[in-house]
């Protein structure tokens, strides 16, 4: 899976926001707010990745703080949010 074209991530203070630009703005109204973990995964989604790569990124970022089970659960939840928002190809 990969992000659709036309979505950018910007940092505002300690938060991150995703907004649509160009042609994508015609079909997507609003913005998505993310924390730093969401921003990490969003940037990873710019490439063609799968849930295992998301899981591994979380395990790397939070080494020793989360289990593989929790990382996979969170990766799947993030992917589902992107699907619901219509941001994935």
Largest sheet: 3 strands, antiparallel
Proportion of strand residues: 15-25%
Helix content: 40-55%
State Rg: 13 Å
Distance between the termini: 6 Å
Q: Strand order, main sheet: write it out.
A: 1-2-3
Q: Which overall shape is indicated by the principal axes computed on the Cα atoms?
A: globular
How many DSSP E strands?
A: 3
The tally of helices reads: 4
Structural description of this entry:
By secondary structure, the chain is an alpha+beta fold. It has one domain. Helices cover 47% and strands 18% of the residues. It has four helices and three strands; from the N terminus they run E-E-H-E-H-H-H. The protein has helices spanning 24-27, 36-44, 51-61, 68-85, and strands at 7-12, 15-20, 31-34. It has a three-stranded antiparallel sheet. Strand 1 (7-12) and strand 2 form a beta hairpin. The longest helix has 18 residues, at 68-85. The termini are close together. The mean pLDDT is 94.
Present the secondary structure layout:
Elements: E1 7-12, E2 15-20, H1 24-27, E3 31-34, H2 36-44, H3 51-61, H4 68-85
Helix pairs in contact: 3-4
